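Cross-check.
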Amino acid sequence: MVLRFFLFASVFLFVSCADTEFNNPYDPESPNYKYRLSCSSSVKHSSSSAGLPLSSVAVSSSSYSVPSSNSAQSSSSVAVYSSSSRSGSSSSVSLSSSSVVPSSSSAKPSSSSSKPSSSSAGNVQSNEKGNDIANYKTVKIGEQVWMAENLNYAVTGSKCYGDDETNCATYGRLYDWSTAMGIDRKYNGNWYIYESDTKYQGICPNGWHIPSNEDWRALLVETGWNGASTALKATNGWSNGGNGQDTYGFSALPGGGSSNGRFSNVGTRSNWWAAAEPAFDNAYIWFFNSTSDSFSSYANKSDLYSIRCLKD
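Predicted model, tokenized:
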């Protein structure tokens, strides 16, 4: 009887201990181990800290606070880390504000990188006048009103003499014939079907046009024909003693030109396009020399010469 009681008590105690052992909150194998939740939350770190030792992800509780909407950083601002931030130390995970928010010097390009230098863009902007007649001097000679300086309107197909922007400020820009006429460049090698009684604005300001042969002749007749170039040329700027008297304020300057890709005659000759064609690939030009009263000729339409616009 005593033996049976002893055996029963032993079995009861064994089962009770086994149950207590299984539910022991201090046993790491127990399902209710009280440190399991806190340990798992400290082990489950973000992918950005993957591969770091546990010591490097045990950040302070302040790093778990939820940021307000205005302090949340974009992924692009926090996704870039230097190699030193992967060293595994705790400081490599707790990013300082300076490492999350780029400094003003890194976020904004310097003025030199965001704005072109004056040498690359400023000269064009300061010298170029466009095709607004308000930007140009004008003069009335007889019944005609002329621009008193060459057109300086930067468009595709125009150049400065010698590819030097300072020459545009002095002489205006140089144009091939189709560019001057404001038509397709294919007409540098084709007839444009010119009509003498039509005023072709081309790239002149509104209310102004590229002069015809008749317009040029009328100017020279008005200013005396023989000796007209002396009356129309500027009082300085011409070489070989070619300065004029500038009697009418036309102020012709020797801007030269370009033929077959070669610039020539700056200082000795002025050339202006006319809205007239003697051949499918040629157009008329009117010109003054330093030492003679040469007036009219023709040139290849692909050559580059000046423009003087005439009021309609």
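The first helix runs from residue 2 to 22. The radius of gyration is 43 Å. Passed to J.P. for a second look.
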